[in-house]
Amino acid sequence: MNTGARPVRPAPLIVLMMVLTWVTGMIEAASLLALGPAFTAMQTGNVLFLAFGLAHEGNLPALASALSLVSFAVGAVFGARLEAAVEVRGQRWFVTGLVVEGTLILAAAGIGWGLDPQYGHPGARHLTATAVLAVAMGLRTVTSMRVNVPGLPTTLVTRSMTSLLAGSALGHDMALGYGTGSWARRAWAVAAMFTGGLTGALLLRAGCTVNWLLLPAAVVVFVVASVHLARPSLLTGGTR
Question: Measured on CA atoms in the order 136, 142, 144, 146, is the torsion positive or negative?
């Protein structure tokens, strides 16, 4: 039963969540630099892109951002219903969520097969791939919130960076982890997102088409799911 408390998560699970954070960086590189401009996980950016686009400032088309926002919402609702239903049946909701996410990323790779990056002027295939990725990232955000590793949401780094700084020797805030050693996990979370984004950007710079950014991301998600199959089932991590 969900008591609302934050359980202590084992180190192997934390490593797997770091890997998923890296995947998010790859996905955002594809969606923002090759398919958009639109984010598929960090929806704060899309809200602002949509606002700027509607104001006709900054040369930011609103369609991709609006589509990503709606698709993300669909993914979040779908993910919540799916994982809750799977957990009620006593099955592995974490693995199920990852398998569905990986399948969606794989589908987006198929849609974007051989598709050249087209920043700022997305065509129909670009927009379709963006929508599928946003559904996947909506589902992932639900998965991450259910796992509930403090400072490691996997789809954004603002909270991780804030907790890292506030809980460090600089911030000295015991309420945010000062003296607990949790700064290392938060630092690795920021590094994982950065590395994933850098990897995706370098692949684009090397001339890769959209599918070659998304295929590795899908494979990694499937690997994380298979690795976790050997571990005990997760209980819901409580609310944030």
Answer: negative
Task: Give the C-alpha separation, 131 to 95, whole Å.
Answer: 23
Cα dihedral 141/108/38/203 (nearest 10): 100
Phi then psi for 40, rounded to 5 degrees? -115, -20
Residue 153 backbone phi and psi in degrees, to 5: -80, -15
Amino acid identity, position 130: T
Q: How far apart are the first and last CA of the chain?
A: 16
Location of structure tokens 């409580």? 238
DSSP string of 92-158?
A: -HHHHHHHHHHHHHHHHHHHTTTPPP-TTS--HHHHHHHHHHHHHHHHHHHHHHHH--TT--SS--H
Reference 112, options 193, 211, 198, 199; nearest CA is 211
In order along the chain (240 residues), what is the average pLDDT of each group of 10 residues? 51 92 97 93 93 84 92 98 95 96 98 91 94 98 91 83 77 70 81 96 95 97 94 64
pTM listed for this prediction: 0.90
Q: Which of 159, 226, 160, 225 lies closest to 187 in space, CA to CA?
A: 160
- The pLDDT tens digits for 146-166 are 998 877 889 888 877 887 778
44's CB contacts (< 8 A; 6+ apart) are: 156, 158
What is the C-alpha to C-alpha distance for residues 153 and 42, in angstroms, rounded to an integer? 11
Q: Which of 144, 166, 167 is nearest to 155 (CA)?
A: 144
Count of positions (residues) in the chain: 240
